[in-house]
Design a protein that fits this description.
By secondary structure, the chain is α/β, with parallel strands linked by helices. It has ten helices and 16 strands. The chain has two domains: 260 residues, Zn peptidases (Aminopeptidase); 113 residues, 2-Layer Sandwich (Alpha-Beta Plaits). 34% of the residues lie in helices and 27% in strands. It has an eight-stranded mixed beta sheet with strand order 1-2-4-3-5-16-6-15, sandwiched between helices. Strand 3, helix 4 and strand 4 form a beta-alpha-beta unit. Helix 4 crosses helix 10 and helix 7 runs antiparallel to helix 8. The radius of gyration is 24 Å and the shape is elongated. Bound molecules: zinc ion (ZN) (2 copies). The site of one zinc ion has 4 residues, from loops.
Length: 382
């Protein structure tokens, strides 16, 4: 059974909505025009909504009687990069681009909203969350802080991301972790500056920096189980201003990804110990700060998602053995508050990767995604 015919029948309109959204990308929590556009469509469909978080929107479809509350989420924000696709609908703003396909996710949710408007014969409530600020701006947390899970007893929640490298008719469902956590750290090493010719008269910070960078690599090799997945990347080193001056201070920054919360704890502890040890060895002051940005995204209802996806694309096109991505997703915060699943839908085998200036969302995914949401809902309401 392929995509829902009622959804496929609106393809031209859905495609033009997606391409319109693509041409006017908005960044972070500033999704004002996008929200206005979504509201306009929801008004046309006769679906009510409320503002939530920061420039996010919660649409609500109530069925004929009481029942489960099922939520779906689409992200809406774009990226600060300049588009190079040359498409007729390419971004009208230099330095802003829908390079992650959130224009398509928004259109997919609108397609599902339109479908629901004609299918209100269900017991329960469907919530459609149009979310701002996924690309590192804390949009999901703002929605949680604004009381999404206090106002509504949400039984389960579903989301999707388009995924280059898979065919349009392939859906990936992970059992357990689908996306990694993301943490960031800052290490400030303070010594005492002086002339480069007399390092013994200074407190030289760079040797400590070198030790930290090497030591961070051995945290993965020696403190983390070979069965766990983790990445530590040093991404910035700042310090020094002249050939002949030993500087006072060097700053090191980095990024940590894991697929398991216990590994996150272990890495935070290990890097902190490594930093503290530098003080005794080198006589520097080492100030270490570890910031948790996103938890791992853990799917708790994969079987249900496989059943729903099978009805849209056939079991042979539902992939369940794929490795989790080491990228992160703020949808993970929702999975800390309710059950659910976050799936990937192929954006085409030859599609440029997300966040690339030549990337474009594949409009066929609107049909697959909205049909999948409809099947997920049916599966939950069974
Ligand atoms: Zn992205
Ligand atoms: Zn994205």
């Amino acid at each position: 059974m392929p995509v829902k015919p009622e959804i496929a029948a609106c393809f031209d309109e859905l495609k033009s909505m997606r391409q319109h959204l693509h041409s006017c990308p908005e960044i972070g929590l500033e999704t004002v025009r996008t929200v206005a556009f979504v509201k306009e469509q929801l008004d046309r469909y006769g679906i009510g909504y409320e503002d939530i978080g920061v420039n996010s929107l919660l649409a609500k479809v109530e069925g004929r009687g009481p029942g489960k509350t099922v939520a779906f989420r689409a992200d809406m924000d774009a990226l600060e990069t300049t588009e190079e696709t040359g498409l007729p609908y390419q971004s009208a703003t230099k330095g802003r681009m829908h390079a992650c396909g959130h224009d398509g996710h928004t259109a997919t949710m609108l397609a599902f909203a339109r479908y629901l408007a004609d299918h209100r014969d269900l017991d329960g409530t469907v919530l459609l969350l149009f979310q701002s600020g996924e690309e590192g701006f804390g949009g999901a947390l703002e929605v949680v802080k604004d009381g999404l899970f206090d106002k509504y007893r949400i039984d389960c929640m579903f989301g999707m991301h388009n995924w280059p490298g898979y065919a349009e008719n392939q859906i990936v469902v992970h059992h357990g972790t689908a996306m990694a956590s993301e943490d960031r750290f800052d290490l400030v090493i303070r010594g005492r500056s002086g002339h480069a010719s007399v390092p013994h008269a200074c407190v030289e910070p760079f040797a400590a920096v070198a030790d930290f960078i090497k030591g961070a690599q051995s945290v993965i090799a020696r403190r983390i189980s070979a069965h766990d997945k983790a990445v530590i990347s040093i991404t910035q080193v700042h310090g020094g201003s002249a050939y002949n001056i030993i500087p006072d201070e060097v700053v090191v920054r980095g990024n940590v990804r894991t697929t398991c919360a216990a590994v996150q704890d272990r890495i935070e502890e290990s890097l902190g110990q490594l930093a503290a040890g530098l003080e005794a060895i080198y006589g520097v002051t080492a100030t270490f700060a570890y910031h948790r940005k996103h938890p791992p995204l853990v799917n708790s209802m994969p079987e249900l998602a496989v059943a729903a996806a099978t009805r849209v694309v056939g079991r042979e096109n539902v992939l369940t053995e794929e490795l989790p991505a080491m990228g992160s997703e703020d949808y993970a915060f929702f999975m800390q508050n309710t059950k659910g699943c976050f799936v990937w839908i192929g954006n085409g085998v030859d599609s440029p990767v997300i966040h690339n200036s030549k990337y474009d969302f594949n409009d066929q995914v609107i049909l697959t995604g909205a049909s999948l949401f409809a099947e997920l809902l049916e599966e939950v309401m069974k």
